[in-house]
């Protein structure tokens, strides 16, 4: 078959700013062919690489690049640059390194390109417009998507509904994206409207959600959702106790940041993770001290409320869970711009459902994506409160989103049946909308 077309995200810029965070925070898996190529380079201490450990180690049935004692990739130099890139050019780097922060996924007869907002340059929208990088990204897509590519089956609409066609999926995407992008109301109001009509869509008979019937149904559902929430005068609905508990468990999993350094922490590290998980579940007392991702620490300096492991800290300096339930000024045009961009990039790249996200159905995947909104604002509140502030700022929200998006769609814990069931339960209990409204205050 002909090579699939490449769909690029709009409204997004990115260029690498050499923070070196991704070279410390990711375990780079390489193929046998890449290992052979790197071995042929015959690296020595004269090249500046460490000579006290192997450069490549076994990783399951594959291999991965090793790390230095401080957690940095063995090929990362003191200036945050890759030695492979510097000596042999970008093309010599492993594919995983060249791809980040892009995420490339087959989608019907096309290939979509999304971005990971865990990169601070992405979350801050810094660099060259992605649409100006088409030639590079098309080449990247050719390397990631094999030449014998066969179109994947589209995701199910929900766990209870049958498969829909790829044209139906694209129609749904267009309606969701338009609902979040257009309107003279705040982003949270638009998000609540989309959640409303998606909830209504899930309740309609299966035979009405195919082809022309779906095309005629979606405007009706959208109009009904606008009537239900015509303006920004949102009803104040506090999440239930069980809804708050499940939400904190989700936030704890999103905050967990596994690196080569944490993998070396051994038994005591696992005990600490268990203890932190219990405290998030209970939601009483002070929030546990958690490590800030290195890239976030570099990009946002010491303004982070998540204290770096290397910094002296006391639990007494952390805010309590109860402190984060007050108003923090979450409805802000600057925040709205960031969330519109984030959601549109994830939607355009289908980076929330199907093969790109734990094989989640369309509706379940969007509800999971919607939960990133209150989760980000919750962590932004934690950052502000940690620094003695009662109002969140744009850097708080940017750093929070960069921290959490590291795991969205990638953490094995979030792909487990229990995690998927949690999203379904929160939606069934109408807690997704409640959480979005509550933490936007």
Describe this structure in words.
The chain is globular and about 70 Å long. The strands form two sheets. Strands 1-6-5 form a three-stranded mixed β-sheet, with helices on both faces. Helix 16 runs parallel beside helix 19. The protein has helices at 22-25, 32-40, 83-88, 95-99, 120-123, 134-144, 166-181, 187-203, 212-228, 241-255, 260-263, 266-282, 294-300, 333-348, 362-370, 372-386, 394-404, 417-428, 431-439, and strands at residues 5-7, 29-30, 56-59, 62-65, 102-107, 110-115. The model is unreliable at 302-313 (pLDDT under 50). It starts with a strand and ends with a helix. With 441 residues, the protein is mainly alpha-helical. The chain has two domains: 5-144, no CATH class; 153-441, no CATH class. The protein has 19 helices and six strands.
Give a brief rundown of this model.
The protein is mainly alpha-helical and 441 residues long.
Q: How big a fraction of the residues is strand?
A: 5-15%
Q: Assign an overall shape.
A: globular
Specify the helix fraction band.
Answer: 40-55%
Total DSSP helices: 19
Radius of gyration: 22 Å
SS content category: mainly alpha
**Biggest β-sheet, characterized?**
3 strands, mixed
Q: What is the oligomer described by this structure? A: single chain
Uncertain regions spanning at least 5 consecutive residues: 302-313
């Amino acid at each position: 078959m002909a090579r699939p077309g490449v769909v690029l995200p709009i409204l997004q810029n990115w260029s690498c700013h050499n923070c070196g965070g991704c070279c410390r925070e990711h375990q780079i898996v390489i193929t046998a062919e890449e290992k052979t190529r790197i071995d042929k380079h015959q690296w020595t201490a004269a090249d500046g690489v460490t000579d006290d450990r192997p450069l490549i180690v076994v990783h399951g049935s594959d291999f991965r690049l090793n790390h230095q004692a401080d957690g940095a990739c063995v090929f990362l130099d003191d200036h945050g640059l890759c030695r492979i890139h510097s000596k042999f050019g970008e093309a010599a780097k492993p594919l995983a390194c060249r791809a980040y922060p892009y995420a490339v996924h087959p989608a019907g007869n096309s290939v979509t390109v999304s971005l990971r907002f865990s990169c601070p340059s992405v979350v801050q929208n810094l660099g060259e417009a992605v649409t100006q990088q088409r030639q590079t990204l098309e080449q990247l897509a050719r390397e990631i998507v094999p030449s014998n590519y066969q179109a994947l089956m589209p995701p199910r609409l929900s766990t209870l509904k049958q498969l829909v066609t790829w044209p139906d999926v694209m129609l749904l995407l267009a309606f969701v994206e338009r609902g979040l992008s257009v309107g003279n109301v705040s982003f949270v109001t638009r998000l609540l409207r989309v959640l409303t009509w998606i909830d209504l869509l899930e309740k309609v008979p299966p035979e009405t959600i195919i082809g022309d019937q779906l095309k005629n149904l979606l405007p009706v559902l959208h109009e009904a959702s606008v009537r239900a929430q015509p303006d920004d005068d949102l009803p104040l609905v506090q999440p239930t106790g069980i809804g708050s508990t499940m939400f904190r468990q989700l936030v704890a999993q999103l905050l967990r940041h596994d690196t080569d350094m944490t993998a070396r922490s051994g038994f005591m590290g696992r005990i600490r993770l268990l203890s932190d998980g219990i405290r998030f579940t209970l939601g009483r007392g002070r929030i546990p001290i958690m490590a800030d991702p290195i890239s976030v620490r570099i990009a946002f300096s010491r303004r982070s409320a998540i204290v770096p492991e290397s910094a002296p800290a006391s639990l007494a300096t952390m805010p309590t869970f109860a402190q984060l339930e007050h108003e923090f000024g979450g409805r802000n045009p600057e925040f709205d711009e960031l969330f519109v961009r984030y959601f549109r990039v994830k939607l355009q790249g289908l980076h929330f459902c199907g093969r790109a996200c734990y094989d989640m159905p369309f509706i379940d995947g969007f509800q999971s994506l919607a939960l990133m909104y209150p989760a980000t604002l919750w962590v932004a509140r934690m950052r502000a409160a940690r620094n003695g502030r009662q109002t969140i700022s744009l850097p708080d929200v940017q750093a929070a989103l960069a921290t959490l998006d590291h795991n969205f769609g990638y953490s094995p814990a979030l792909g487990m049946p229990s995690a998927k069931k949690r999203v379904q339960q929160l939606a069934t209990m109408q807690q997704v909308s409640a959480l979005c409204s509550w933490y936007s205050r």
